[in-house]
Structures are given as structure tokens and as C-alpha cells.
Specification:
It is built from 2 helices and no strands. It is an all-alpha fold and 55 residues long. The protein is elongated and about 50 Å long.
Amino acid sequence: MMTIEQHIEELLAELRNAVCTGERRQIETELELAKAGREPALAAQEGRVSAEPPF
């Protein structure tokens, strides 16, 4: 199973090699979504938010 960091690295590599504008846009969109999905995990890891549900 691929981690989100691995997925982001793969998307960055694909973006570097993309020549078609449509393909670049699609990869950029996927990259933004992957980075947004990574943010809550990083915030919890860094203690910026609690992983516990509110009481």
C-alpha cells in the first residue's frame, strides 16, 4: 500500500514529465487533493489538532 507521501512524490514525478496541458492540469489537481489529505494527518502528528473526537 502506498503512503500519501509516496503518492505525492509520484505525482510530482509525473508532473515533471507531463507535456500535455490537460495532463498537467489533471496531475496538478490530484496533487492538490493529495496535499490537502495529508494536512490533517500532519496537524494531528504535530499536535496542532487532537485526533480524539470532541466531547
